[in-house]
Amino acid sequence: MLEFDKKDLKFIGPCPVCNSNFAPQNIKALKNYGATLMLHVDCSECESSLLVTLIKSNTGVVTNVGVLTDLNKDDFSRFRDMPVITISDVLHFDSNSYNTNDNFRNKK
Ligand SMILES: [Zn+2]
Fold first, then answer.
1. For the chain, how many structural domains are there in total?
2. pTM beyond 0.70, yes or no
Protein backbone atom coordinates (compact mmCIF):
# COMPACT_ATOMS: atom_id res chain seq x y z
CA MET A 1 0.00 0.00 0.00
CA LEU A 2 1.29 3.46 -0.88
CA GLU A 3 2.09 5.78 2.02
CA PHE A 4 2.22 9.56 2.14
CA ASP A 5 5.28 11.62 2.84
CA LYS A 6 6.00 15.34 3.16
CA LYS A 7 6.47 15.91 -0.57
CA ASP A 8 2.85 14.87 -1.17
CA LEU A 9 1.73 18.04 0.68
CA LYS A 10 2.35 19.99 -2.55
CA PHE A 11 -0.89 18.44 -3.82
CA ILE A 12 -2.91 20.50 -1.34
CA GLY A 13 -2.60 23.49 -3.69
CA PRO A 14 -3.34 27.14 -2.85
CA CYS A 15 -6.14 28.50 -0.65
CA PRO A 16 -9.44 28.28 -2.60
CA VAL A 17 -10.61 31.60 -1.09
CA CYS A 18 -7.62 33.95 -1.55
CA ASN A 19 -5.23 31.82 -3.66
CA SER A 20 -2.35 32.16 -1.16
CA ASN A 21 -0.01 29.25 -0.59
CA PHE A 22 -0.39 27.45 2.73
CA ALA A 23 2.50 27.62 5.19
CA PRO A 24 3.72 24.12 6.19
CA GLN A 25 3.31 24.94 9.89
CA ASN A 26 -0.43 25.51 9.27
CA ILE A 27 -0.95 21.99 7.93
CA LYS A 28 -1.79 19.23 10.39
CA ALA A 29 -2.33 15.56 9.56
CA LEU A 30 -5.52 14.40 11.30
CA LYS A 31 -5.79 10.83 10.16
CA ASN A 32 -3.84 8.52 7.87
CA TYR A 33 -5.50 5.40 6.44
CA GLY A 34 -2.54 4.23 4.35
CA ALA A 35 -3.39 5.53 0.89
CA THR A 36 -5.74 8.19 2.29
CA LEU A 37 -4.60 11.15 4.36
CA MET A 38 -6.89 13.71 6.04
CA LEU A 39 -5.43 17.11 6.83
CA HIS A 40 -6.55 20.34 8.44
CA VAL A 41 -5.12 23.51 6.88
CA ASP A 42 -5.37 27.15 8.00
CA CYS A 43 -4.75 30.04 5.62
CA SER A 44 -2.66 32.70 7.32
CA GLU A 45 -3.80 35.35 4.81
CA CYS A 46 -7.62 35.10 4.90
CA GLU A 47 -7.99 32.85 8.01
CA SER A 48 -10.08 30.28 6.14
CA SER A 49 -9.78 26.65 7.22
CA LEU A 50 -9.93 23.61 5.03
CA LEU A 51 -10.34 19.87 5.56
CA VAL A 52 -8.32 18.20 2.81
CA THR A 53 -8.35 14.52 1.92
CA LEU A 54 -5.49 13.27 -0.23
CA ILE A 55 -5.99 9.89 -1.89
CA LYS A 56 -3.06 8.13 -3.53
CA SER A 57 -3.84 5.55 -6.18
CA ASN A 58 -1.75 2.44 -6.81
CA THR A 59 -0.09 4.27 -9.71
CA GLY A 60 0.97 7.15 -7.42
CA VAL A 61 -1.60 9.65 -8.73
CA VAL A 62 -2.82 11.87 -5.88
CA THR A 63 -6.42 13.13 -5.79
CA ASN A 64 -7.19 16.13 -3.60
CA VAL A 65 -10.64 16.79 -2.10
CA GLY A 66 -10.92 19.99 -0.05
CA VAL A 67 -13.86 21.30 1.97
CA LEU A 68 -14.04 24.68 3.68
CA THR A 69 -14.77 24.25 7.38
CA ASP A 70 -15.48 26.13 10.59
CA LEU A 71 -13.73 23.37 12.55
CA ASN A 72 -10.36 24.18 14.06
CA LYS A 73 -7.57 21.66 14.52
CA ASP A 74 -8.67 20.68 18.05
CA ASP A 75 -12.33 20.24 17.08
CA PHE A 76 -11.52 17.18 14.98
CA SER A 77 -10.02 15.23 17.89
CA ARG A 78 -12.83 16.48 20.17
CA PHE A 79 -15.66 15.31 17.88
CA ARG A 80 -14.19 12.23 16.19
CA ASP A 81 -15.09 9.76 18.96
CA MET A 82 -18.55 11.16 19.70
CA PRO A 83 -21.60 9.20 18.56
CA VAL A 84 -22.99 9.96 15.12
CA ILE A 85 -26.14 12.11 15.08
CA THR A 86 -28.97 10.00 13.66
CA ILE A 87 -32.30 11.02 12.10
CA SER A 88 -34.00 9.82 15.31
CA ASP A 89 -31.81 12.17 17.37
CA VAL A 90 -32.82 15.10 15.18
CA LEU A 91 -36.53 14.23 15.33
CA HIS A 92 -36.35 13.79 19.10
CA PHE A 93 -34.61 17.15 19.47
CA ASP A 94 -37.09 18.84 17.16
CA SER A 95 -40.14 17.39 18.95
CA ASN A 96 -38.95 18.62 22.34
CA SER A 97 -38.93 22.35 21.96
CA TYR A 98 -37.97 22.81 25.63
CA ASN A 99 -34.61 21.22 24.83
CA THR A 100 -31.67 23.49 24.61
CA ASN A 101 -28.55 22.45 22.79
CA ASP A 102 -26.79 21.41 26.02
CA ASN A 103 -25.17 17.99 25.80
CA PHE A 104 -27.49 16.97 23.00
CA ARG A 105 -24.93 14.60 21.52
CA ASN A 106 -24.37 12.80 24.84
CA LYS A 107 -28.00 11.82 25.42
CA LYS A 108 -28.81 8.18 24.64
ZN1 LIG B 1 -6.80 32.19 2.09
1. 2
2. yes
